[in-house]
């Protein structure tokens, strides 16, 4: 069959076709010499099940500069623009750029550019696409605080222009000096100036759009700026734009530029980025498994390194927590959504990069000192009020118990204690407590409104509602973590107080319905259908999910939850029912109310973070073989190596960390307890090269798609009859050896 290019272009341009095809083939090709890099495909999950898709982001691990073309999703065959930086995961970009070889008009900035999916090269260290209508190739390579774009125009193109615009509505400035330098700033989130310094490899003529006309001038101030630089016909066919970004100052932007481009061009930047990624994904070596499983695994590992991001610039950083510039030689990390990442991403980092995790915790402590509150969703502009719970408390406990230091634990405890005593628990709200929080402290549950009762507390978000059951359950886990951390620090009084508050989840247990059901302020049960009541996302009572998902939100006291259900056998039966329970309505009706609850298996929702630990609960219910069955099934069904390969909102590493852990064969069910429970590895051998110089190995003999059940196990040569091992054993360089078979051994691990 003819190639896609030969169908697109006329035979007259066959030589051009061959040249472009050769270029993309060389850029895209992956070989065994690339090691684990060959399995990374950033396009996996680029079409969301219902809500947000993944994005094929090009960046260095945990670094500030991130680039992804602005378009709707992978299905969209037009690109609106290319950003100089994605400031925050799902929270915006700065400085749009796009090439053009047509006569410019004010409408050129709004024009969308068609591209060919098959000619798009997306790698963590390199991006390229071919703009079909314009016959222009766009390439990008990332640095830490800098980036490099190359725009390849048609040979002897009569017009070569680069258009600059803004993504934010605030005041901005763009200035061209010397006909090849760009300086300026864009205002992000109303009050943060993001500075840019860049250079072109050729000189051009600059201009702006003003009063709906193109005017030649070198500088512009105001809102909604549209600037351009046009190069003459004798300029190089490849226009290169090197630039750096700063949140500190225009001088720092230029210093960042000099730091990264002193001896580097495009290829050096690209190869350095590739080498860095090779080291990161090479930390976990795998044998066996299918190529599809390796693609899903290593792509997930790549996504686990998108954030948090270090915004320290050459010993200085801007903090959105006190709106000041700080001097520090230590990294300062932002962009973390803890409701998603405390479950698996932070625990994964405690294994792979404890120093990085330590620096992140130190950043949290700094943010507390600067703002007065321990953040929950720290981003560039401060703590983003999002979701519910103070799960950074759990993160601190988990890391401390795993031996991670390098931050002020007493100051950290001060911060989490203040949150637990003085901050509002209301969803999507930051700041001091209100009357509902005082009610929780006194009565031990968050009160819900009766059906038809109007809200009287002004602080409650009109869309997010009270989420009374979800807040109570999440608060119980957070309070448990405060008490446990108090115990680690010998604060006995606090330990006892919060040990009681950790049991608050029991106050909403309805024994008749065998569910967590809301109560009103008078202590009366509210009669609801836990499958479907509570408005959009169930937010009046739950959050993004229904009562079946929140039935299991007691990770900190699994035996206590089992006792509420009547013992281990009934606990196991209830788990079975979860995966088999009908929606009692069409998927159309269900998803119209619960769009976040995707990846359904019965009432189990693989597509939302609160479900991650649930399939592993069989290990605590006397049936580890069912965990092995469920986990393998979920990985196979919902995490395919294609554009639909993420069943819900990935949230910058939350869902990917589940894939990494589960594919390796173990999972941290209860962050805060330095213990892992065993699932069913998809690989016959996993080797984690630990930063302490040791190796943790998991060997699964005879492992295959069919041989997914554990027949027997040994840890360091000693018989292991329980599906658990400790973080200490892992970090000491232990070896877990599993014998796998096609049928379950129902007696192992009980």
From TrEMBL:
<protein>
    <submittedName>
        <fullName>Putative alpha-1,2-mannosidase</fullName>
    </submittedName>
</protein>
<dbReference type="GO" id="GO:0030246">
    <property type="term" value="F:carbohydrate binding"/>
</dbReference>
<dbReference type="InterPro" id="IPR050883">
    <property type="entry name" value="PNGase"/>
</dbReference>
<dbReference type="GO" id="GO:0000224">
    <property type="term" value="F:peptide-N4-(N-acetyl-beta-glucosaminyl)asparagine amidase activity"/>
</dbReference>
<dbReference type="GO" id="GO:0006516">
    <property type="term" value="P:glycoprotein catabolic process"/>
</dbReference>
<dbReference type="Pfam" id="PF07971">
    <property type="entry name" value="Glyco_hydro_92"/>
</dbReference>
<feature type="signal peptide">
    <location>
        <begin position="1"/>
        <end position="26"/>
    </location>
</feature>
<comment type="subunit">
    <text>Monomer.</text>
</comment>
<dbReference type="InterPro" id="IPR008928">
    <property type="entry name" value="6-hairpin_glycosidase_sf"/>
</dbReference>
<dbReference type="InterPro" id="IPR041371">
    <property type="entry name" value="GH92_N"/>
</dbReference>
<dbReference type="InterPro" id="IPR014718">
    <property type="entry name" value="GH-type_carb-bd"/>
</dbReference>
<dbReference type="GO" id="GO:0005975">
    <property type="term" value="P:carbohydrate metabolic process"/>
</dbReference>
<dbReference type="InterPro" id="IPR012939">
    <property type="entry name" value="Glyco_hydro_92"/>
</dbReference>
<feature type="domain" description="Glycosyl hydrolase family 92">
    <location>
        <begin position="252"/>
        <end position="742"/>
    </location>
</feature>
<keyword id="KW-0106">Calcium</keyword>
<feature type="domain" description="Glycosyl hydrolase family 92 N-terminal">
    <location>
        <begin position="39"/>
        <end position="246"/>
    </location>
</feature>
<dbReference type="GO" id="GO:0005829">
    <property type="term" value="C:cytosol"/>
</dbReference>
<dbReference type="Pfam" id="PF17678">
    <property type="entry name" value="Glyco_hydro_92N"/>
</dbReference>
<keyword id="KW-0732">Signal</keyword>
<dbReference type="InterPro" id="IPR005887">
    <property type="entry name" value="GH92_a_mannosidase_put"/>
</dbReference>
């Amino acid at each position: 069959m003819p190639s896609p290019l030969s169908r697109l272009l006329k035979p007259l341009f066959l030589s051009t076709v061959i040249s472009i095809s050769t270029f993309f083939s060389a850029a895209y090709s992956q070989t065994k010499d690339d090691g684990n890099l060959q399995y990374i495909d950033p396009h996996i999950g680029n079409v969301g099940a219902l809500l947000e898709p993944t994005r094929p982001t090009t960046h260095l691990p945990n670094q500030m500069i991130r680039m992804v073309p602005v378009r709707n999703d992978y299905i969209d065959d037009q690109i609106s623009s290319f950003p100089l930086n994605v400031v925050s995961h799902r929270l915006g970009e700065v400085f749009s750029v796009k090439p053009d070889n047509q006569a410019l008009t004010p409408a050129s900035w709004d024009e969308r550019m068609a591209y060919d999916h098959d000619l798009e090269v997306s790698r963590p260290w390199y991006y390229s696409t071919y703009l079909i209508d314009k016959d222009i190739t766009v390439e990008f390579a990332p640095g830490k605080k800098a980036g490099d774009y190359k725009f390849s125009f048609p040979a002897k193109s009569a017009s070569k222009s680069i258009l600059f615009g803004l993504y934010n509505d605030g005041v901005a400035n763009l200035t061209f000096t010397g006909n090849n330098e760009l300086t300026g700033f864009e205002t992000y989130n109303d009050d943060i100036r993001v500075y840019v310094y860049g250079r072109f490899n050729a000189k051009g003529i600059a201009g702006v759009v003003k009063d709906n006309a193109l005017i030649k001038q070198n500088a512009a101030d105001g809102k909604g700026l549209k600037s351009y630089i046009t190069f003459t016909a004798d300029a190089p066919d490849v226009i290169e734009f090197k630039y750096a970004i700063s949140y500190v100052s225009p001088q720092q932007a230029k210093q960042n530029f000099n730091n990264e481009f002193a001896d580097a061009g495009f290829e050096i930047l690209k190869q350095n980025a590739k080498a860095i990624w090779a080291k990161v994904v090479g930390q976990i070596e795998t044998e066996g498994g299918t190529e599809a499983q390796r693609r899903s695994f290593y792509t997930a590992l790549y996504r686990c390194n998108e954030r948090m991001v270090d915004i320290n610039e050459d010993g200085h950083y801007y903090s959105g927590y006190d709106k000041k510039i700080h001097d520090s030689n230590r990294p300062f990390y932002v962009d973390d959504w803890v409701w998603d990442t405390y479950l698996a991403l932070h625990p994964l980092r405690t294994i792979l990069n404890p120093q990085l995790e330590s620096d992140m915790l130190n950043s949290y402590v700094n943010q507390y000192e600067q703002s007065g509150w321990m953040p929950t969703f720290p981003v560039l502009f401060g703590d983003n009020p999002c979701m519910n719970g103070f799960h950074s408390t759990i993160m601190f406990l988990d890391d401390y118990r795993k031996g991670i230091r390098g931050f002020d634990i007493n100051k950290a405890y001060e911060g989490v204690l203040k949150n637990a005593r003085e901050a509002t628990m209301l969803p999507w709200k930051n700041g001091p407590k209100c009357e509902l929080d005082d009610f929780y402290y006194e009565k031990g549950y968050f009160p819900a409104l009766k059906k038809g009762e109007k809200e009287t507390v002004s602080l409650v978000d009109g869309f997010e509602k009270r989420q009374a059951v979800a807040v109570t359950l999440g608060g119980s886990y957070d309070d448990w973590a405060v008490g446990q951390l108090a115990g680690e620090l010998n604060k006995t009084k606090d330990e006892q107080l919060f040990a009681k508050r950790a049991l608050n989840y029991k106050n909403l247990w309805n024994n008749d319905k065998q569910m967590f059901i809301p109560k009103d302020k008078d202590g009366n049960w509210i009669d609801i259908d836990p499958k479907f009541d509570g408005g959009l996302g169930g937010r009046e009572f739950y959050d993004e999910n229904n009562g079946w998902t929140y039935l299991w939100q007691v990770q900190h006291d699994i035996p206590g939850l089992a006792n509420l259900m009547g013992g281990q056998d009934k606990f196991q039966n209830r788990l079975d029912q979860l995966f088999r329970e009908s929606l009692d309505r069409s998927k159309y009706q269900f998803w119209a109310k619960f769009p976040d609850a995707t990846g359904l298996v019965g009432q189990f929702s693989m597509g939302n973070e609160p479900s991650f630990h649930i399939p592993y609960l069989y290990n605590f219910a006397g049936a580890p073989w069912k965990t092995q069955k469920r986990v393998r099934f979920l990985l196979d069904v919902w995490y395919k190596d294609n554009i639909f390969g993420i069943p819900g909102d990935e949230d910058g590493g939350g869902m990917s960390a589940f894939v990494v852990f589960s594919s390796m064969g173990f999972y941290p069910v209860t962050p805060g307890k330095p213990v892992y429970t065993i699932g069913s590895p998809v690989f016959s051998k996993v080797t984690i090269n630990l930063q302490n110089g040791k190796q943790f190995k998991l060997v699964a003999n005879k492992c295959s798609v069919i041989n997914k059940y554990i027949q027997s196990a040994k840890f360091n040569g000693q018989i292991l009859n329980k599906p658990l091992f400790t973080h200490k054993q892992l970090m000491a360089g232990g070896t877990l050896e599993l014998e796998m078979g096609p049928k379950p051994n129902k007696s192992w691990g009980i």
